[in-house]
Amino acid sequence: MQLRTTILLTTCLLNLAALAQTFNLRKENDSLYWVNDWRLPYPVYQFQTGDVDGDGSEDAMVGVVKSTRFYPEKARRLFIFKQVNGKARPLWLGSRLGGTLEDFRFIDGRIRALESTTDSLYVVTDYRWSGFGMEFDHFIVKGTDKSTALKYFSQ
Questions:
Q1: pLDDT number for residue 86
Q2: What are the distances in angstroms from CA 59 to CA 9, 23, 48?
Q3: CA distance 20 to 29
Q4: H/E run at residue 7
Q5: pLDDT in tens, 93-136
Q6: Is 130 helix (H, G, I), strand (E, B) or coil?
Q7: Per-residue pLDDT at 21 exceeds 90
Q8: What are the CA-CA distances from residue 105 to residues 12, 14, 26, 78, 150 (Å)?
Q9: In the predicted model, is pLDDT for residue 6 greater than 60?
């Protein structure tokens, strides 16, 4: 009975420790940041936390400016991190969502993105976690000017 109580108590303490884990963003200079222990050698334009993948634990969403292998022009990207054994580890290092990412925020378990399109219009889109990355959920507004898109994005 004592062993079972000890195992149960240990499990509860580990679960509480996992829930208590938080993320912090530290700026070393304009192009070097740290998410906890993870080095980000890029400019950062946005940092938010929330449960992106719905597992009950906090994730970190970091907006970085960088090029990628398939998109060589520097642009805004979205990185998502999890806590693994007390350390920040990538859950998803996104090259693109849909359009050109201008900004994002976490709302109602989804990532809301303000994006520009190739025809110089704007969309506001909600994305949700799909098991490997972000998946289109629905448009909030599409094919509009920037000021209208910003109003919808900010709601």
A1: 86
A2: 25, 8, 8
A3: 28
A4: helix 2-20
A5: 999 999 999 999 999 999 999 999 999 999 999 999 999 899 99
A6: coil
A7: no
A8: 32, 30, 19, 11, 12
A9: no
Closest to 112 measured CA to CA, from 100, 123, 104: 104
Phi and psi angles of residue 2, each rounded to the nearest 5 degrees, phi first: -65, -40
Is residue 9 pLDDT above 50, yes or no? no
The answer to whether the CB of 25 falls within 8 A of the CB of 38 is no
Note the Cα 94 to chain centre separation in Å: 9
SS3 73: coil
- The amino acid present at 56, given as its one-letter code, is G
Residue 110's closest CA among 54, 47, 26?
54
| Residue indicated by tokens 């599409």 | 142
Sheet (strand 110-116) strand order:
100-107, 110-116, 122-129, 134-144
Please tell me the pTM assigned to this model: 0.84
Q: List the alpha helices (DSSP H) in the chain.
A: 2-20, 146-154
Rg over CA atoms, the chain: 18
